[in-house]
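Entry: DUF3307 domain-containing protein
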Amino acid sequence: MIFIQLILAHLLGDFILQPNSWVADKESRKLKSKFLYLHILIHTVLSFIFLWNAELWWVAVLVGVSHFIIDASKLIFQTIKTKKRWFFIDQLLHVLMILGVSFYFNEYNLEFLKDRDFLKIAMAVLFLTTPSSIIIKILLSSWTPVAEAQNNIQTESLTSAGKYIGILERLLVFTFILVNHWEGVGFMVAAKSVFRFSDLAQAKQRKLTEYVLVGTLLSFGMAVLTGILIK
C-alpha cells in the first residue's frame, strides 16, 4: 500500500497542485524560487497525509528531501534542448525513490524476475520495439523509394516519427492479442489505413504507397505472430 499511497501523493503534488506559473518561476529563478520550496513542502505534507501514520513521519521527510535533490538537479542542469529528457529523468527518479521505500517495507520483491510468463512477455515487448524496427528497415532497404518533388503537397514529417508509430502500433496489437480482443487489431489496421493511405493517394506515388503498405503489413504481422507465439 505504501507504493500506491506515495504515488498518489506524487501525482497530486507534481501535476495537480503545481500551476504552470510555479514551473515557469522555478525554471527562471531556479534555487532562488520560493515556489520550489513550497512545492517540496506540499509533497512532504501530502506524503504524510496519505501515509496517515505518525510512526512513518520519516518516510514523508525522506520523500520531501529526495524530491528537493532531484528537482534542484533538474533545474540546475537542464537546458532548453534537454528539457524534455530531464522531465522523464526527473519522473523516473521520483518513482525509483518510491519503489525503494516500498522495497524497504517488503511490499515487493524480485521473485517476479523468475516468473516464466513475465519473462516471455518482457522478451516479446523488447523485441517489438527497436529490434523489430531494425529488422523491417533491413527487409525494406532494397525498396526504399526516392521521394519525388511535390509542389502542392506537404511532404515534411517529424524526425523518426515512422519508427515510433511502428513501435506503438506493434505494442498495441500485441496487447490486444494477449487480452483476447482481436477486434482491436482490426481497429488498428483500419485507423492506420485511414490516416496513412489517404495522404499516399494524394501523393500519387505508387512505389511509395507499396513501400509503406509492405512495411505496415510486416509490422502488424510481426506483432500478431509474436502475440500468438507468446500465448
